[in-house]
Amino acid sequence: MHKQIIKNILYNGFSFVTNLIITLLLTPYLVNNLGVIAYGFIPLAMIFTAYIGIITESFTISINRNLTKAFQSGNFLDANKIFNTALFTVLALIMFLLLSLSYPIINLNTIIDIPIGLNQKIKILFCFFIFSFLLSLITAVFSVSMYALNRIDLIQINSILRNIVKTVSLVLFFKFDDADVIYMGYSVLIASFASLIYSVVQFNKLTPELFIKLSFFNRSKVINLLNMGGWLLINQIGFVLFMKVDLLIVNKLISPENSGLYAIALQFSDVLRVFAGIISGVLGPAVIILYSQCKILEMNNLTKLFVRFLSLTISIPIIVICVYSKEILFYWMGSDYISLSPLIWLLTLPLVINLGVQPLFSIQVAMNKIKVPAILNLTFGLIGVLLSIFLIKNTTLGYYAVALSSILMLTLKNAFATPLYTAFIMNEKGHDYLFIHVKTVIFTALSMFFLEIFKSIYYVDTLISLILSLLFSFVMLTMLSFVFYSQSDKNKFIKLIKEKYDN
């Protein structure tokens, strides 16, 4: 299994690089062709589907857990029942969503603030994003075979395929016709079709034991899946309050233009979240497999290793982005957007704490201990939303009020509540997890100090000098991070790499 973990990490890294390049190229391309106001509605459309996704994401996690356990026990009859129950439940859910979403789309301008000239186009954009999302629900069900067999590398290949198809389609639409925000919807839908086809092909290849048969639909399985999914649903609602409401608040309470600017600043934290997600996502199936095999100590040690690795690794790009935010904005978006630098600092720097704890969620899911995290997520998320609204109405902070509120609540939760609760359910000492935060903060402070000294010596005045500075910074901070790993951690990494090549 360790061999597959390394392979999964490599493919996840490649997926992240691909996603990063596309994001860096696509954001200024869209802003320049559509304008900052029209561009701002693209992430808003993605957020709209995320609201629907709080229902389906929780269900998908529950499917992954139960199907993985069935496969590991060799119970293919039960696996078929889980798969078919999930598939036909999702198809029924899609029919329900198609009917129920017609009203909010028709009255979309009452939900978000849309300029008169863009009203019809934005409605069409949202329709295509919703159709794309509904296709992704079916894709997710067929992808469970890759997850259950720990083939995260194949899942990431699918992610790369989807991003490339979306980008190529969009560029072709813009090339052979006038740039229009609707074409983003077309491109996303085409990419979703390609992703679905890939998932079905891999499903048939990896799990010939599974097949579609209505008679395998089992009502008791629906109850079993929804039992765990209920608390996951509450957890996802909390996640949406933390991550997906800020743009809507800025759009509705400030202005669409400020929403577009806020969306640009969010691109950095979004990419970093993707990176953290694909690293911690490698751990998910491995933890469930170890838990199903009653290898609790190995599961705990592997998770701790991932938390330490992710905390230090993700801190490197966070620090570099913050320190060079003005220079990056100048050469990426243009001089008009340098003023977004403080907002990038506020949205990005606290992620050194918030992203490192993501692997801990794998333990909570594997052990089905998600009630408390769900309540905490919902509570802190709701407080963050209320605080955002209060600060916007009673201060002159503008969109900084939204960023400050959400980041403050998220950091308090992830700095203390998340690690302490995980330690509690694992019968571990809480300070073991908290000490990882301390090491990360010290590493961050030292790294920022060294980079500021380097910036004062090596002045960035061209794009080439910026690229060289970024490369040097990454190398220097990577070398510095080695100091913060224990000898035991280094030995474990060497062992994982040796197992990959020995096999």
Which secondary structure elements does this structure contain, and how are they paired or packed?
Layout: H1 2-34, H2 36-72, H3 76-100, H4 102-106, H5 119-142, H6 144-148, H7 152-176, H8 182-206, H9 219-243, H10 246-253, H11 256-292, H12 296-323, H13 325-332, H14 341-348, H15 351-354, H16 360-366, H17 371-394, H18 399-425, H19 430-457, H20 463-481, H21 487-502
Helix pairs in contact: 1-2, 1-7, 1-11, 1-21, 2-3, 2-5, 2-9, 2-11, 3-5, 3-9, 5-8, 7-8, 9-17, 10-11, 11-12, 11-14, 11-16, 12-14, 12-19, 12-20, 16-18, 17-18, 18-19, 19-20
Protein architecture, described:
By secondary structure, the chain is mainly alpha-helical. It has 21 helices and no strands. The chain has helices at 2-34, 36-72, 76-100, 102-106, 119-142, 144-148, 152-176, 182-206, 219-243, 246-253, 256-292, 296-323, 325-332, 341-348, 351-354, 360-366, 371-394, 399-425, 430-457, 463-481, 487-502. Helix 2 packs antiparallel against helix 3, helix 11 (256-292) runs parallel beside helix 14 (341-348) and helix 17 (371-394) packs antiparallel against helix 18.
Give me the number of helical elements: 21
Shape: globular
**Approximately what portion of the residues adopt beta-strand conformation?**
under 5%
Structural class: mainly alpha
Rg, nearest Å: 23 Å
Helix content estimate: over 70%
Low-confidence stretches: none
Largest sheet: none
Q: Give, in order, the helices and strands.
A: HHHHHHHHHHHHHHHHHHHHH
Give the N-terminus to C-terminus distance in angstroms. 11 Å
Q: How many β-strands, per DSSP?
A: 0
The average pLDDT value, as a whole number, equals 85
